[in-house]
Amino acid sequence: MPPAKKRARSYDSAKTRAAVLAQFGHVRDAVLALPPAALDGPTRLGAWTVRELAGHIAWMVDSVPALLAAPEPAKQELPLLDWPSVTASAAERIDEHSRGLGTADLAGLYERTREAYETAVAAAPDTRLLPVSFGAMTLADFLVTRTVELVVHTDDLSAATGVSIPYDRQALAACTRLLADTLAARAPGGAVEVRVPPYAVVQCVEGPRHTRGTPPNVVETDPLTWIRLATGRAEWAVELDAARVSASGERADLAGLLPLMG
To answer: With b meaning 16 or more CB within 10 Å and e meaning fewer, what string describes 111-127?
Structure first.
């Protein structure tokens, strides 16, 4: 997959920093309220148990202070819009690491993670480069990717446990927008308008660009359905049949472009 050429939108860093902490707090409350037997239950993530998923979520947040503690790279190498495309290459490494995390004391793990995150980001500038395994990223960009990890895995946790977990509005917005912008970067054009109210509207797919009135090719869905489609948790045809996605126009079939990340 060639690198994305489209420039990423700007995000309010203060809101993103707070959103990561807020969504992690929602996950923590849900995990710690689970009965012990539920932690050994299955998830939709292969062989991962709920306990392993809970540990993985903590690791995704703890990666922020861990990377801030590492030497700063010389230059940025990974633009934000390229991040979703490269994550699949690390699936095996992520799986191995997540299974090896110490999760016997989830309450302690989550509290240590919260404290480390708050302390580390408090004094770190947005432009601080982090040595992410896929290439150096700014702290501001990396925090946006943390909203994706948190929102996607909050949904995984809800699906596994049947518990309704709140979504921080800013975290859900950032996740939705990054995945929508990734689609627009991967399939540039103006023939199709993709709407994910209330957070994102993008144009994509080669063809005649629409400039006025009702676009002839429109896709619309809700944020969680969009996120599930973009990450392979849902199938286009199934969501279309269930009316969780509406698609009008001869070019409004995104099945061949999804998922955007696995």
So the answer is: eebbebbeebbeebeee
Q: Which amino acid is at 18?
A: A
Record the pTM.
Answer: 0.94
DSSP string, 207-232: SPPP-SSS-SSEEEE-HHHHHHHHTT
User: At the fourth CATH level, which superfamily is domain 13-170?
Assistant: dinb family like domain (1.20.120.450)
> Coil, helix or strand for 91?
helix
Give the separation between CA 216 and CA 193, rounded to whole angstroms: 9
Fold for domain 187-257? Nonspecific Lipid-transfer Protein; Chain A (3.30.1050)
Give the span between the Cα atoms of 125 and 128, in whole angstroms: 6
Ordered DSSP codes for 107-135: HHHHHHHHHHHHHHHHS--TT-EE--TTS
Write down the domain spans for the chain: 13-170, 187-257
| Burial of residue 25 (number of CB atoms within 10 Å: 0-12, 13-18, 19+) | middle
Mutual angle of helices 13-32 and 106-122, in 10-degree steps: 170
Nearest Cα neighbor of 195 from 208, 168, 214 is 214
For the chain, helix, strand, coil in percent to 5 are 55, 10, 40
Q: Which two tokens stand for residue 98?
A: 């997540």
pLDDT, tens digit, 9 for 90 and up, residues 9-62 = 999 999 999 999 999 999 999 999 999 999 999 999 999 999 999 999 999 999
